[in-house]
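== Folding the chain ==

***
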Amino acid sequence: MPTAVGDHPQVFLTLTAPSFGAVHTATTSGDKKAQVCRDQHRIGGYRRCPHGKQLWCSMSHDHGDERVGQPLCPECYDYAGHVLFAWHLPELWRRFTITMRRTLRKELKATGVDPDAVRVSFIKIVELQARAIPHIHALIRLDPQDDPDQTDWESPIGAVELATIIQHAARTVTLTIDDPTADTDARTIRFGTQIDTQPLAASAKPVKSAPPEPEPEPEPEPGSGSGRSMSGRLVARYLAKYVTKSLVDLGISARRLSTEAIPDLDVSEHVRTILTTISDLADKGLSGIGRWLHTLGFRGHITSKSRRYSTTMTVLREQRAIWTREERLKSTAYQYDPNCDFAGRDDLVAWEFERAGLGSLGDRSLVYSAALQRIHSRLIGLVEARRQAHNEQWDPLGASDG
């Protein structure tokens, strides 16, 4: 891609999930001092939920506090809505991109510009909030439709106008889904109210202010997200930071999970309840969600981009193939001068390849026996765990007394 695309209108977008219940937060003020988690004056006094749990928290949590992201009342927290939002987020994002492009076309037509002369490109990264629900960071850019390498192209609208279009699309897009847990069998999925759009400055001057980290529980902020500018380099650093985050921080490995392993996982009760909710929704007929326990119900890609945002995967594969061939040629090349005469030189040691792998039948037998013993031990442990869980679940009251 030419470097001139850095001068095209670009907007750094953050889309969060709606609130599914009050959770502990870690927020800082402008001077980097920790603020009170849930100040009673901000929430309307010392209120309690219908289950008697307090809805205020007078503590100031840091980002490493284990309570950050945990619900104040797990019984009030809408875990079904939490899981359904994560499950349908890829489709909600797809509808957002459609709505954004349609809104852009209407704006261009209203100003007398050919709507086919502009193309929307983007790169998207999904990150987990502290409350274990995904939200989206995206860099959206306008390019000329016909010649992406054009250096003297001027966009008919600027970054601020593009940010307004994105805000409108994000706040209006919805998705109606079937809800297995509701009596009405329908639920509307939408993004949260904390939508942040920051136009990128055309120059590469560094900007000291960082984009606001979305709070674990978004609060309504009317008119937020426009007017501030960032540099492209700063956005690149933040996107690189977001993509390195992992579910391992929550105690979940990257391998697929079984519902029978949920009680034994070393995770918080909040994450365990999310996993249990996923299992319950799978039992109620939400097809396929049970295979995504290890991603907490999110079935999309962590990173994705529009086809012409930058280089394509085909080009990257070709470059990797060229690099692999060159490295293979380097490994087969002579490590010494082939014309060198080794006769009469005692200071040189010649190495020769002997074999790869196990050298005898006895070694292979030992390795296979150890592997089979390990597999057998895991099967026995799984059977015992299932038997113990079954006994604990179905043992009648008082059956083990005396």
Notes: The two ends are 78 Å apart (CA to CA). The first strand starts at residue 10 and ends at 15.
